């Protein structure tokens, strides 16, 4: 009967389970963090350190979090935690954007379901419902963010609807008011006829839309050239409803045009043989094809500049006795020959280029469309018709006047409201603006600030720069109810804006005391004081653009909370915020403080499905982070965030999450292996670096290399590279090599052996570093592992990344062991083939002969190659290897001749050695020594 030596083997012991069971364990860890006040302890631990402030771009308080929100918040938490562990003080004040159309739209929809009219409800009551709606969703989202493992000052977040914030936002606006920048003007802005308000570019999304296209003739009544006499200029438009608002035709001064005489036409053509048409030469063939003009002849070719001074007649002239005004031909630098006719009809009320050209030449800007999209009385023949139903009535009227040349259809990208999803129009209305140019030099300051800011990735700089270079004046007014009012007074007779610091101070004080509702609930005379009479002033009830709200948070949050700093170290949001929060914050700060409110801006992509498609309910590919946490746990989601390049769109799907889960299991098992083999480790057991075997010193060298990478990648926010490197280190350097090699020593060496002490010392260093390095991402798993090893500890998240001794770094040793591992790879390849052919079972049954070259022989000198290859013996062969020797193409100069190990199997370590037969206890010499040492300790 064989002896039982199981009790003498040091098998791993740990309470850290192999099965993560994250959905059940994580909530308890969240509760523990609450109980011990982790966020407060982090602040206390970091007191006096250099501050790193990531200013939270506020999510909108109107629904459950989605995958994009989860990605954003997790990435922010990873940044904050890593900066804290790098030795910074990284406070995190979460915030919420509470004002604006989405919430107002939701309350309006509830009203509509009940048959109520929103406009019949007192403003203060309506705003109260909006506030309650936002408060409810803030509580929901706060709990969801905590469940993701995000640590912050959740008890004291900022909200744009807090009274102090509303007062601060108004005071930021007042800076533009008092310095003379804020002005009211009539401009063509993007308008939602469904939501009845102007929209900012950031509130717009583009979708394919089918438009009716028209080619329309404008008869020339006073041509600039004789050959134009009796002819018509031809325009092309994708918005037939804007034709009644036409006031000019634009041409390109450098474009070549032709006067052509129409010859033969198709049967259904609206063109008339013999008529003269003016069209850009480059567009003539396509226009003729669209209009069914079969033949034509060129009468004259000339430059666009020759059209200067020409006057046309409106194509609807005479309709109900109207449209009899002159239509001048004007030069427009926006006219091209890419589409259309090379001539553009100009409706100053309904286009940005049109409006600016009209301003330059004093064109009339009629109020042709009401806020809900119906033609006004200034559109004879069409009054009361909705613009989205106007195409056919306009077409019929043009036909009746003989000015329609052709019609068609075009599918193109068209602006839509991101809330109602309805198409938008351009509409000239009286709005409030902050100028980009002029005395304030806002554009110039913003461009300089962009150049002074770090952008990650770098391409973000060019993107926002292009936007700032071309953007028009900032429209800061909205015609809504829920938000901070644009609280100004305008003199009724002079139109002058009241710019009085005392009035501003009274308004701000009221907002601070009662919130912005005070603008509607207080007597306006109390704001004006004794110097002004209310009957002389118009009280403006427009609402501030919500992007001005969030763009002011650098002032209302960073400058007001002592634990933060201005400017922020980092703004971090999705790439769409180049036109949103990054943009408005930049303009607001440059306008009031002359520089950007951030030192660095980091952007991430969008979450898409496994095929790269945008998530939508219609496709059925929407993934909920709440549901995923119920099945996978938050740590899997957090690892998913760093598993790809977040600067690009990030894919998610079943197979992707399964791959992430596999990676997670390898990382968890690495921690479990370390914990199991560190059971009972004490400081007395620790071995100095200089006394360690080469293998352990190589592992510490690799740790030193990784330590440098950890710090650099965290500084660069390059988390994909970092966590790929950590995973590769765990899977390849540790599990597949070091753990495999040292398992025998850890299990079977006597407790006080140098080799075992060195290994356990290295395992301790590995655990401390891997737990800390992984902590910003695997926040729950590392906390569980840390407390498993040190139950009395507070939290791994209160630790810093461990400092690494410079003596650990040994590049020469690293190169040597790369060579050793290449030799080992050939040996393990040969043994794997032997197992496959069933000539051996375990590698310990082998004692191969290894042939190597001089350099490899020098590298292997003094090393126990059998130990490294996990065989019972190895001999270095002399001379040329036999032809049948095993080799690998990518490892030249190494050949292995497999052979069976001589001797008997040790009953404790399972090595096959001749010495085992020398004793009747079935042990090898090493195991006999270890068993005796244990017996002596236990005696």
From TrEMBL:
Residues forming the Aminoacyl-tRNA synthetase class Ia domain are 29-652
Keyword Mitochondrion attached? no
Where the record places motif 'KMSKS' region is 614-618
Occurrences of domain Methionyl/Valyl/Leucyl/Isoleucyl-tRNA synthetase anticodon-binding (ranges): 696-845
Q: Which cofactor does it need?
A: Zn(2+)
Q: Could you confirm whether the keyword Repeat appears in this record?
A: no
Q: How is the cofactor bound?
A: Binds 1 zinc ion per subunit.
Q: Which top-level group of life is the source organism from?
A: Bacteria
GO terms for molecular function, please?
isoleucine-tRNA ligase activity
Q: Quote the record's binding site residues for L-isoleucyl-5'-AMP.
A: 573
Q: Which residues bind Zn(2+)?
A: 906, 909, 924, 927
Provide the residue positions that the database annotates as binding ATP: 617
Q: A Pfam family in this protein?
A: zf-FPG_IleRS
Per UniProt, the short sequence motif 'HIGH' region occupies residue numbers: 59-69
Q: Which UniProt keywords apply?
A: Aminoacyl-tRNA synthetase, ATP-binding, Cytoplasm, Ligase, Metal-binding, Nucleotide-binding, Protein biosynthesis, Zinc
Q: Which PANTHER family match?
A: ISOLEUCINE--TRNA LIGASE, MITOCHONDRIAL, SOLEUCYL-TRNA SYNTHETASE
Q: Which NCBIfam families match?
A: ileS
Q: What does this protein do?
A: Catalyzes the attachment of isoleucine to tRNA(Ile). As IleRS can inadvertently accommodate and process structurally similar amino acids such as valine, to avoid such errors it has two additional distinct tRNA(Ile)-dependent editing activities. One activity is designated as 'pretransfer' editing and involves the hydrolysis of activated Val-AMP. The other activity is designated 'posttransfer' editing and involves deacylation of mischarged Val-tRNA(Ile).
Q: Which family does it belong to?
A: Belongs to the class-I aminoacyl-tRNA synthetase family. IleS type 1 subfamily.
The entry describes its oligomerization and partners as:
Monomer.
Reproduce the free-text note on domains from the UniProt record: IleRS has two distinct active sites: one for aminoacylation and one for editing. The misactivated valine is translocated from the active site to the editing site, which sterically excludes the correctly activated isoleucine. The single editing site contains two valyl binding pockets, one specific for each substrate (Val-AMP or Val-tRNA(Ile)).
Record's protein name: Isoleucine--tRNA ligase
Q: Which species expresses this protein natively?
A: Benzoatithermus flavus
